[in-house]
Amino acid sequence: MPETQEFDSRRRVYGFQMRGPVSLTGRLIFGVVILALGLLWTLDNLGVMDSAPIIRWWPSLLLLAGLARLTGIGARQQMVSGTVLSLAGLLLLGDALHVLHVRVWALWPLAMIVIGAGLVVRSMRPSVRPQSSADPQAELHLFTMMGGIVQKNISQAFRGGDVSAVMGGVQIDLRNAVPAGPEVPLDVFAWWGGIDLTIPPDWRVVTEVTPIMGGYDDRTKPLMGEARTRLIIRGLVLMGGIEIKN
């Protein structure tokens, strides 16, 4: 027992506590990169070492992060963001090592190919259940480009769906919707556009969204009791924004 108390005290002093397996999140990757660059540049300024040959390998971190997301090893498997990170890391690393004989930024349309492929794959996913003609709002399948959609959903068996906004906006009010089950999946995509969701106060939001030069804002209030429904939001935000409130 004394050893346990000493360990707990030491843990509180240093403020470090392991809470299970470490997940390869964007915050972890960014923190490691900042820490490593700061350490290398400090040693370089002090004349301890020449950090230039090491710093040029930094794109390998992007490549490793992308491969982790593609394979699901150490991170949540996300094919679109994993492919984008892997390609970016591979191209930047090839440019830094002078392996590529073309300008890296000339290959930026590859990102459009990856994003387009991701949209095609997600749109070809079959629905969990066939949509009933008696309840046309049971599933959302909304797409807008250079326009806007405002919808109030009153389905009594809401099953989720997909929402895409390209240079436009979508506003969805789900406060009067009744879920068909304990979990409601919603696939989102925003490219130079925005998606606003208003949900009931007893729904809990589970976020699996990858923002790239975009934003995701969860403004829902903390639940006082047990959640009636879990709204699982998956997708990609590219130079756009998603806001959720209740």
Helices, strands, pairings?
Layout: H1 2-14, H2 26-45, H3 52-55, H4 59-71, H5 79-96, H6 109-123, E1 139-145, E2 148-152, E3 160-166, E4 169-173, E5 183-191, E6 194-198, E7 203-212, E8 215-218, E9 229-238, E10 241-245
Parallel strand pairs: 1-3, 2-4, 3-5, 4-6, 5-9, 6-10, 7-9, 8-10
SSE arrangement, N to C: HHHHHHEEEEEEEEEE
Helix percentage? 25-40%
Category by helix and strand content: alpha/beta
Largest sheet: 5 strands, parallel
Percent of residues in β-strands: 25-35%
Radius of gyration, in angstroms, nearest whole number = 22 Å
Low-confidence runs: 1-19, 128-132
Number of domains: 2
Could you give the order of strands across the largest sheet?
1-3-5-9-7
What does this structure look like?
This protein is of the alpha/beta class. The protein has two domains: 19-122, no CATH class; 133-245, no CATH class. The protein has six helices and ten strands. The protein has helices at residues 2-14, 26-45, 52-55, 59-71, 79-96, 109-123, and strands spanning 139-145, 148-152, 160-166, 169-173, 183-191, 194-198, 203-212, 215-218, 229-238, 241-245. A five-stranded parallel sheet has the order 1-3-5-9-7, covered by helices on one side. A five-stranded parallel sheet has the order 2-4-6-10-8, with no helix packed on it. The relative contact order is 0.09.
